[in-house]
Amino acid sequence: MTFPTDWCVTTLGQAGQWLSGGTPSTTEPAFWGGDIPWIGSGSLTQFHISDSERRVTELGAANGTRIVGPGTVLMVVRGMSLLSEFRMGLTARTVAFGQDCKALLPRSDLDALFLAYALKAKTSAILDLVDRAGHGTGRLNMDQLAAQAIGVPGIREQRDIAATLGALDDKIESNRRLINICSALLDAMSSSFVLDVDSVPLSHLAEPIRDTFDPSSLGTELIDHFSIPAFDAQGLPDRTTGASVISAKLRVDRPAVLVSRLNPKTNRTWFAVPEPGVSAGCSTEFLVLAPKAGVTLGSLWLAVRDEGFRSLLAQRVTGTSGSHQRVKPLDALATEVPDVRQLLAADVQAADELLSLMHQRRIETTKLAALRHALLPELLSGRIRVPEAGEAVESALA
Predict the structure, then answer these.
(1) Cα 164 from Cα 113, distance rounded (Å)
(2) Cα 115 from Cα 133, distance rounded (Å)
(3) CB under 8 Å to 183, separation ≥6 — which residues?
(4) Which DSSP category does 338 fall into?
(5) What does the buried/exposed string (b/e) look like for 72-96 if buried means 16 or more CB atoms within 10 Å of the residue's CB?
(6) pTM (predicted TM-score)
(7) Do 141 and 130 meet the contact criterion of CB atoms below 8 Å apart?
(8) pLDDT band at 321; cut points 50, 70, 90
């Protein structure tokens, strides 16, 4: 790859100090449950790294792991996730990290956020370096990783590039937080209505969509694919070619609420509002529910988010494997939910508006992520400079 003549070229190995992590003994209670996030391959899922479900104490941090401060680039170098994605990000606070990750502390002439984006722009090349260790685990060869070249403009342009891409990421993160707030408000509404209304079988409020189609027949046409991996990864459908989807899917041709039939103890409730001109298909692991007359998308959402319904659903599963238990569609439809037709019109309107806001921000996030994905390699290679990219970003954020 060539870079502008006013840029320097360096390697990742020369970009700063590399550090390895570790795991404190999991049999020592005094090491865990503290205030310091411990980042492992499973928890490095956000570009801006600030928290983790697992935390270590000061004592744990001093026994078997490593602490790094804000402005450190972290990346997964070993794990199953490497077989399909390169997880990396930039620390926003002091964290500890495990042996499946590496840390890169930028040298003094490199802006930390710029370096993080430069590494992210190398994702495809880095994934090509992954080989398989024992049990099929993905593994990065550190010598090959260190040899990867990046272009380095002056510090002012580094910061301008980082700020341009950061503006998109900041808006994406703001949307993510707003979506989570809306979801929490809807859950609170669902909980508060349980004692105020009667219960009815789910089939009284919704009808299942059963029409299936073969996405692969669409060839290169783009479709929105609602799947459990997509839900777990980003809460958004994968927009991909029909040819890349290998099995029949439920056709989503109208607004619907999606309830996972697979392992219903895990609350995977989704909603779909098809975009005009884009086909949408849903995994048959979901029950795709269209509201009946007198029921709105928002009120149906409140019904299926009810904790009592979720508990009853989990009791109706079939299958002996703990990881592959499913509830049959007819059993799910016979399960009782709050009769949301009895809610006040103002409450139904509030639920609809919250769900609509979630949908709008979800669409915006998809577009912003696509723009960032397109700009990232162009800015980091110097093929597009900041003034030109800035116009596109300002227009997207307007």
Answers:
(1) 11
(2) 28
(3) 358
(4) E
(5) bbbbbbbbebbeeebbbbbbeeebb
(6) 0.85
(7) no
(8) low
Of the candidates 47, 285, 54, the one whose C-alpha atom is nearest the C-alpha of residue 173 is 47
Give the pair of three-digit tokens for residue 11: 């390697």
291 within 8 A of 299, measured Cβ to Cβ = yes
Residue type, 116: A
- Tens digit of each residue's pLDDT (9 = 90 or more) over 235-278: 888 999 999 998 999 999 999 999 999 888 888 999 999 989 99
- With vertex at residue 301, the alpha carbon angle to CA 296 and CA 307, rounded to the nearest 5 degrees, is 145
Residue-wise pLDDT tens digits, 187-245: 999 988 777 789 999 999 999 999 999 999 999 999 999 999 898 877 888 999 999 99
Cα–Cα distance, 75 to 116 (Å, whole number) = 10
Q: Alpha-carbon distance 100 to 6, whole Å? A: 37
- 347 to 185, 188, 271, 354: CA distances (angstroms): 12, 12, 19, 11
- Name residues whose C-beta falls within 8 Å of residue 96's C-beta, 6 or more positions apart in sequence: 21, 36, 37, 38, 39, 56, 60, 61, 65, 66, 67, 68
CA distances from 172 to 177, 305, 379, 395 (A): 9, 25, 19, 15
Nearest CA-CA partner of 122 in 160, 150, 143, 95: 150
From the number of C-beta atoms within 10 Å of its C-beta (0-12, 13-18, 19+), residue 117 rates as buried
Give φ, ψ of 89 to 5 degrees. Answer: -175, -175
Q: Tokens at residue 183, please?
A: 């979801």
Give me the half-sphere count of Cα atoms (radius 13 Å) on the Cβ side of residue 344: 7
